[in-house]
């Protein structure tokens, strides 16, 4: 079976010469939920922008469900990889929730009744069905993050990539989002340094540090290895232990 | 944070005026304004007829006079300018209540006031009966360049976000003991404005990335079907039509 996502020997340097990725290798199977952990500046965001072809690899390949990311495949890749940005105000740019959720599928050519159905289904999945006609800036932060997830779900992605999904959420919104993510039948790659959240949601974790994958294994084992975490500037919150 | 924002100029309702497609209303208001501007200033009867027409629209849209008057405050700078003209104008002078006023100046002031007031009142009625985003969709239907419509749309969406950032920057300044009191503080405020510009610019870049990520390829997908029937165009046309009739009537009398 083809993997949902396969990254192979991916290297990238920014135009100013700063090398951000030095050969990243990993593979995510369909239906897995994987956390990508790493300190600030490890290259997490750079890696994420490669996954849907916004940045193109200097060296190496990214393959999504058998389709290689390249200039000719970019629209289909963007349908397959649903990117949820950290700040929902960046993600929600249309005047109403309905138009925002419809934006992605409409760009793929979906119209009319089918489009309306996709919008409703996606909002249903994140529990925001009743907000359909509201402007995004009238929603709470947690609600906006959920709508942001719906905007990519409406594109029926192969893999959902979330950048710091728990940041700035109050505890209740954080738990609600976790419940939603668990209920989705989709492959998830979650970029975070909220380690308890990774443990709660992802059975497997990767540590990206210094532009390479420094660790890949069950989240519980990785979080229990205090030396490994310390070596990559990762720390569990005070009072939190992994049994 | 911004709950009241949407309803500052828009007054939701379900009247025939509210239900008209936005492109019809936009075109009607533009045609009405052109008719008003084309009217010679001496034709008082025509101006009276225009005012009556707008009152009729307000009545049909159930927009109370107080609502219109309060929102007409945007006209104040023009009023101030218009009131100054008779004093600074040249030419033949007349004495009014002991003041020596310029006769051409008085005519000019009347011209500005009457036409601006009618135009602003028509725009206020348009805004009161049409949601801002519908106005933009209407403009798009009227073949306004899509880039301009997109810019206006993003402005409407991000005004609150940027105002929020501006407020946080002000609070951060004041939290460290800064208060803009006189002209010496202008450089600090100016630097904040520069920082705000850069933040907004960077946000624009992030929004663009988010758009690309969802398959944006340079044009917005058209999502709402805003076709107007001939009947709706005809109904919207009554305002400029009646105004034109009034203009022609006044011409026959003149």
TrEMBL record, chain A:
GO MF annotations, alphabetized: ATP binding
Membrane topology, record value: Peripheral membrane protein
Domain ABC transporter: 5-235
Family annotation (SMART domains): AAA
Keywords for this protein: ATP-binding, Cell membrane, Membrane, Nucleotide-binding, Translocase, Transport
Signal peptide: none
Subcellular localization, as worded in the UniProt entry: Cell membrane
InterPro entries in alphabetical order: AAA+_ATPase (IPR003593), ABC_transporter-like_ATP-bd (IPR003439), ABC_transporter-like_CS (IPR017871), ABC_transpr_CbiO/EcfA_su (IPR015856), Co_trans_ATP-bd (IPR005876), ECF_ABC_transporter_ATP-bd (IPR050095), P-loop_NTPase (IPR027417)
Gene3D superfamilies in the record: P-loop containing nucleotide triphosphate hydrolases
Similarity field: Belongs to the ABC transporter superfamily.
Function according to Swiss-Prot or TrEMBL: Part of an ABC transporter complex. Responsible for energy coupling to the transport system.
Protein name (record): ABC transporter ATP-binding protein
